[in-house]
Structure formats: C-alpha cells, structure tokens
Amino acid sequence: MVKPTMLSDHVNVQSFLKSALTATTTPDVEALLKNLPITPEDSYVYDPDDPSAGWKEGNFHWVPVGRERGNAGRIKQANFPVNPIAERAVNGMEALIEMARLRELLKDPSADAPRNPREAVARYFGLPSLDELPKLDDSATSKETRKRARELARHVRVRLMFHKASREFTVAIEDDGIGQPPNAIHRTLLSLGTTTKADKFYLIGVFGQGGSSAYAVSKYSWLVSRRAPDLLGGSPDGVGWTVIKHVFPKGRRDDYFAYLAVSPSGEVPFIAPDVADEVSIRHGTRFVHIGYDFGRGGSAITRQLYQSINHILYNPVLPFDLYVGTTAATVYGNGYRLSSLSAKQNKGTVLDKVFPPQPVGV
Amino acid sequence: MATATAQLDKSLETPVAVGYGTITIRVVVFDKNMAASAPLDDLEKSPVDATPDEPLPETDKKPISGFLEEPKRGKAVCVFLINGQRQHTWDNQFIVRDLGLKYLRNRMIVVVDCDGLKPEAIADLMQGSRHQFYEGAVYSALESRVTATLKADPDLRKIEEEAEDDIASLQAGDEAVKSALDQLIDAHHDAAEHVDHGHVLAGDSSRDEAAAGTLQQTSTVVVESDAQLGTAGDDPVLAIRPDLSVIRLKPNEDRRVVLVAKPEAEWKSLQTMTVTFDPPVKELQATRTSQLNGEEIALKFAEPDDLDPDEYPIETTLRVTAKFKDVAEVRLLERRVVVTPRKTSPGPIPPNPPPPLKDDPTYVRVTSRPPIKIMVGGADVHVRLRWDGKDELLAGTSPEWSFRVTCEAPNLEPVFFATKPVDGRFELLIQASAGLTGGEQLKFDVEAVGPGKTLTTAFLADVVDPPAPRKITAKISGGAQRRPPYDLKYLKRENWGDGNVTCFGDPWSGTEPGSFDEPTTKSPLTIFINQDTDLLVGYRDQLLARKLAETTIQQRINKYTAHVAFHLYQMYERQRPGKGRAEDNEPPTFEMMREEIQRVARTLIKLMEVTQ
User: Fold this and answer.
1) Contact between A220 and A295 (Cβ < 8 Å)
2) What topology is assigned to B167-339 in CATH?
3) What is the model's pTM?
C-alpha cells in the first residue's frame, strides 16, 4: 500500500494554496510545480493493471486523465476554441442543478426527479426558459423572476484574461455548485468515458468529455473543488487541487493528458478544510485554463467572445456572468437577446414567430 | 372522418410514439433598417488583447450581425439546439436556396429546438465533437420538417414580397432602359432583309373559340420563352410593356401596362383577345383601352373596407390569350400579380391596430383566401384564422377555451396542428402528408369550445399535384425565316498584315476598331472587329488590373463588341443608295467612315469607364 503524498510535507499549504488560486500564467504554474517533488513523466509510465509499478513514494506523479493512456482521442474533441468554454459553463450549470436536486432528496428521499434540465430549473430556481424572460409582464412576480435570474448568473462565472507581457490568454470557469470531495475528483471531474449522470435526465452532459476538451487547447489547466458541506454524504471535507498538462512521452507517438496525483489510485492533492476556510474557499469547482489557444491573434478574441458564447449557448438553461478584462456581462443566450429585441417598444424585428412542437419523421 | 384536437398552447405535445419525437421552430425577421446591435460597448471599443496601433475593423452593419458567431460571414443563421446549446447550424444559403427568401437572407434567424426528440433520435444526431449533427436518417427527417414548415409561411412570404417590392421600385430606371433596348432590337429586326416573305400555315384543327370563347380546351399555344420550353414557334407573340415578370399592385392604385405584339406591326392582325385572372379576384379591376399598336390594361385592386390585413399578399395570375389573323395557334401571355398593402410612411411597418379581444369571444373565422391548395409532397399549408377571444383564454394547463379541429378526408387525413394565438390570430399548419392524392378535397371544421359556447368555422382544401413541365407545342410555319444580316469576323494583331482584308481600303493598325465589307452575291455584309485595337487592349488591361472576375471582363468586352458591330451595321445601312442615303447624295468616304468608327469606339470605352 503506497502512502499518499501530502502537500503539507513539502510546502506551507496555506501560502501554497493562495499562490495556486492566483496562478493565471504559465510562469505562475511552473513556479508552483517547482516547489513540489514530482517524478518526471518519462520516469513513471502509468500501467492501469499495476499503477503502483514505478511509483516513488513521497513524490507527486503525472497520471493520465481518466487513468487511460490513450485519452488524447477522447479529449481532443474541440473544433473551435470557444466550444470548450461553453462546455465548462454548462458543467457549472449542472453543478447548481445537482446541488438543488440532492438537497431536495435530503428533505424528501422519494421526490421524483425532474424529467429534463428545464423542468429542473423551473422547479428549483423558478425560472422559465430564458428566451421567455423578456416576454414576461411588468408584474411584481415577473420582476422577481428576472431578479432571480440575474442573481443565479453570479453563481457561474466565466473569465477571460489576457496577459500583455506574454500575450497569453487564460480562461477561468467557476461555479458555486455542488463541488466534489477531494477523494472523488479523480473519479468524477477527471474521469473519461464513465459517468455518474446516466440516469439523471435533468442533467445535460453524460460522459464529461465536452469540458475535458479544454485541456487540449491549454498549456496548463488547474482545478480546485470543494463539496457543499451538507452534501458530503460521508466523504471527507476539504479541497482537491491539481494541474493538468499535455504529455509528449519521449520516443513515443501516444501523447496524452495527465494530472498531478498523490497516489497510484489517482487521488489529487488534498487540502484540509480548516486551511480551505482560511483562504475562503467555499463549495463549488474552479477550472483555470492557461495559455488558451484561440488560434487567431489580435483583438478578435475579446471582441467576439460575448457574441460567440451567446451563439453557442443559444438558450442556456441558466444564465452566467462573463468577465472580459474588467468588463462584466450576463450571458442569457441569443434566444433571450432576440426576445428582448422583439419586446422593445420600437421593435427591431418585424416577425418573431414560434411554431408549437411538431412531429418529425412521421 | 378523422378527428384531432389541437390545443393552442406551447404546452401542446404531439405524441412521440411514432417518428423521432418533436421539434419547436422559432423564426425571427429583423427590420431591414435595424443597425447591427453592438455586443457590448466596452468590449467593442477597447479589446483587452488589442495591440498598440492595431487597426480595429469596422462593425458589420447587417441587422443580424450582432447575433452571429462570426458577423463577417453569413454563417449559422439557422441553429439547432439541444438543452439550449447549439449543436448544428445552417448558413443563409438555406434561406435563399431552400426557402426561396432571397431578400431575407441577411435579416432572418431560425431556431430549431430539438429537446422534444426521443433520446434515441438525439443519440443518432449527436457526435462526440459536438461540432455538427450526423447527417443520417434522423437529420434528413429534421431537415424536411424545418423546410416544409417555413417554405410556405405566409408571414415570411409577405415580408419577402415587401422587400422585393422595395427593390423593384429602385430598379424602375433599369426597366425603362431595358424597354428602350428592346425597341431598338425590334427595330433592327424589322429593318432586316427577308429571303422569303413570311406566311403562316393555319392548322386544320384550329378553333376560333380558343382565344375569345369560353370553351375550355387543350390547345397548342405559343408563348415567348427561352428555348428550353417547348419547341420552336413563330411570330407574332404577345408581350408586355414594361417587361415585368411580376406585376405588383398597391390597394386602390392604378398600375398600367401595355399589351403589344412582337413584332409590333403584327398588332393590326389581332382578331380577338381575352384577359382573365386565375384564380379570380373579385376586387381586381382591369380596364382596357385600345391604342394604335397595343392595348393598355389599367389594373386596380379596390380594397374593400372590411378586408382583413392578414389576407395580404393577394396573388393571382394575369392570363392573356389572343388570336391573330391567319395564325393557327393561340398566343398566350401569363404574369403573376401580387397585391401588397400600401405603406403609410417610410421606415418600419407600423403594427396593425390590435383587434378588440374579448373575455367572451363571438366568432372564429378563416382569413386565408380560398382556394386553399395542398400540393402533394409540397410545403406545409398555413391556413390563417382569427378569433376575438383574448389570448390568455387558451393559456395555461387548464384553459377555459380550447380548439377542436376535425378533417373529413376521402382517404388519408393529413397531419395538422395549430399555432399559439397572438392578438387573436393563429394558423393551422397542414402537412402535405404522403398518401394524399391530387384531386381530393378535404373539409376542415374548426370549433372553439368554451364555457357553454361553441364557435365554428370551416374551410375546404384542394389536394393538387405538383406542377409538371408544361408541354407547349408549336407548328413551324414555312415563312418568316430571316437571313442573318451580317457575318461577324474578328481580327487580331497577326491578321493586320493580311493583304486580303483591309480597313476601309487601308491596312489594319492599332488605331482601327473595325470596318465592314459590303455584301456580294457570294457573301453577306461582313463586319470586322479589331480585337487588338489600342483602345480595347488598354481597357482590357485596366479591367485585369482591377482583378475583376473573368466573366465580368468578358461581359464588358462583349458589350463593347456588340455596340461597335451594331454601329458598323448602321453605317452600312446609311450609306446604301436608296436605303439610308438619297440617290443623289455622295457616299461617305473611307476616311470619313474610319474616323466615325474610331470616334464611336472612343466614346464607348469612355462611357464604360465612367459608368463602372
């Protein structure tokens, strides 16, 4: 039995965590990693049948995401740079829905599950489809609904940062959702091809691959996650943290994506709850993708991100906040924006027509 | 008798036991005057990644630009969503090609919500990359349904008609130019020599009633069309001035067109002519006035006071048949007539005044104009209805009122469903289901059922076969065969030294645009065009330097060539004794003719440079 590597054995965890939470450039991450005893990726080749083989106790090791050496095929799924950001934002929405669902079950274990994500949003947050929001009247109830939508948007945040010195983009996606206990992160947030969502029709993704595609377009990614305290279900409280990077093994063609693990079974570095409290880490998950490859240079990226993400998440189940540099905006999707346009007194549209559901393929 | 209940609420779910489930379609058309909406002022003005002195691109001004992922491209105007996330897109070619709404391509967005599809259908569509749908059987059904729903949508057609109308009024000057050019060409042909004087062999089975009678019969008719339609016919044909493909009318406004014969001189041989509209529109008046070489038709749509604005656009076909003396076949001319409402002022179309809606409705009625035709295999038919009940009477899960629609069909009842009412207006969409047969008539009864009250209306829909290619036969007469008036020959630099070909008696050079040789007993009038004249070479180089498309350059060179050749033809005609020149006048010298054609070529090139 290999003893898990403890951060506290090598660094001052509190100051390390503070630095980790503000790492937004490649040098920031590399400076963090320098403080840790890490076995080089070519010195430890993960064997799923015997992950302990070659493991050096006391060191951190690079373990393939999903604990699968051939994970590049599953992770390299993004055709366009904005798609992974949208996928991560959707993961954040699901984290809020799942938290509400589990709290519902705590109160009433026999409560029927919502049949789909929109029903879940209506039940737990009292929101209609977002494209219906601008069509609501001016009653107090409608105003309250709109206010609730704006407040909910603050619980999923997408940030785009640009570092002028290195001309490097960083994308951070944060949610205040259910989060994961540190001992489950390798089986949930870092899994591939397996799912805990298969029977949950009120969630959106299934295999978690959409968000993982962000690893492929980033130089480094890091994550922290903490489970909502009332939903630990027997798991230990605390924060899990790790870094994900693209590994090109020497003399081999099977590049893969790996994360920093503390044990052959794949757990991520662990931070005790009291330390987490001291640096004010609440429940939820934060993914930060550093050196994000947007393809084209120039100002097209920041100019277009708001518009692009409103197009990809055309009518999202929940709104979220987008920060570009120092500018903030709430993303409700183009469906909402179109309805806003139609609802204006001086109409920008001459037609806004919705056909009711109609059968296909009969 | 088949019965279906249509609940006028978005909550209506068509059973998904058959097929792939359901989709919801939303279509949004922007006002054409709406500027592109800026995404976010701050983001727009100072992108954080902008380099110093980076030239920032100007904002695209198309109305939909603010709603596209890539505003500089006409991409992704039709989106397919699953759980609100875009999973597939079509570009605006779908609007142009599949819906035929060319003028809405930069103003229209279509959103297809696929959440109602069965999980198996979604699984078939979704790809791991989340990039686009898999284009298999489910996709094909989805594509057909979206197209069929939107293709014949009356609201979209109405907006397209209005856009066309705007463009048609902008092109009025062009119409006049075209008309003048037609006359020039006609005059040219009238002046041409004939080997044989034309005559027409009347057919044995021709009947006088064909043109003026009421007897419906299959006849051989002659229309003016391109060579792809029917077989070759002979003159005369019916024509319309100005040469419009669609006659657009505004209520209570006269629109005058003139029916003529081509060649115009044939008008004097006209025996009878009828003007009808198919389908008849009782408010459409046609006043006919004889003219020397034609007949003027003044068209006017007298808008009745109680006309529902939803009835627009009103469409019919103007059909003119004529019988000419000693000509067997009837001459036919058809033009589409579209009546659209008059705009009260420039700018956005003002909304119709909202009809008074009641808590206790008193009527439901059909506002679509008969005949309602369902084309086998065609797009969905949108039958417009109106009632005077408030929209909320049909809202919610247990509405006070509901609509029941029943269909009496001889064989198979089509699939149909109703849209949600907005300001009392709604539509019944009838799908042209497989199994319907042309010639059938379907009867639809619509009932609005409320507390202690039922309102009813009904309409008939005719099932028609899709239009097939019309076979128009024409018997070829033995006359009116014209000899080509000239032979056109092109010279290049290497031909300039050929002693057998001269330019008005002198050797060719770079200053000579063209010349002609008079006809002889063995050869017709021969017109020479110098393709390497300095003027033309210079002009061609200019066009190439501007990197114009090959076809554009070719069109402009053709235009120059045709005009120079036509002028040489006219020069020949003018100098002929007894034709363009009096017998006792001296013919122009070669030098005079060389100078004239040089001047014409210079003017032409200058004009083409200026007008481009």
Assistant:
1) no
2) Immunoglobulin-like (2.60.40)
3) 0.66
